[in-house]
Amino acid sequence: MHLFPKSIRDDVPSFRRADIFSSLFRFSGRYLLCRGCLGPLGAGAEAGLCKTCWSGLLPLQEPRCPRCALLHDADSGCPDPVAWTFGDALWNYRGGRPPLGTLLLPGIKAGELGWRSALLVRVARASLPSFAAESELVTAVPTALHRRWLRGFDLAEDVANHVAKRLSLPFLRTLRKDWKVRRQVGQTESARRRSPRKAIFLRQDTAIRNRIVLLVDDVWTTGTTLLRCAQALQEGGASEVRVLTLFRAI
Fold this sequence. Notes:
Layout: H1 6-11, H2 14-31, H3 51-54, E1 86-92, H4 100-109, H5 113-125, H6 130-133, E2 137-140, H7 145-151, H8 155-167, E3 175-177, H9 189-193, E4 200-202, E5 212-220, H10 224-235, E6 240-248
Parallel strand pairs: 1-6, 2-5, 5-6
Antiparallel strand pairs: 3-4
Helix pairs in contact: 5-8
């Protein structure tokens, strides 16, 4: 139902209607606040975050270690155990002001589907490390079944599927997680590192023997979950494991 009759609406020139909508857009951009920095949304805003906040998706610094994606002396070795040949992340978890990774991931896992969609669009455009294309299949760090059911999605698997399609590689669910394992969100580093090795299992009849597997996750902090997954893949016969995550905490 319209407020004015069609005869009156038709008398309003199209350019006037366009001016009205343009003014409303500028008004909303000026007075609606960004959910990240709490500044005006402005042009280029998406999913409630302003253009400046989205620019916080910053790449990791160079030159970084090709295995742990951190800055350290080549002679000193990686600060945490690694069980993969190559490892990297698309963005710095604490890049931007406010740190965008620390805002996006908890929000997405709490149900911010607009942020999830906007982030996956950026995954589709991001530069991938060269080692990713040299893999033979893509898999994801598993989420406990009840958490996957509660959220209605699995972000790591969503990202892995996007990467697999970009590289024209098969995606395969190879791992499962013990539902009794505590969430790592909010745990201290020492608690994360004590994660039991048997928390991650290889699925039965998984065809990974003698294949190069690209393991994908949303965030890489201590690397303990990635380590347990890589060990399970190697025990299942993978010839090599490579790691790619959305974010790296540095």
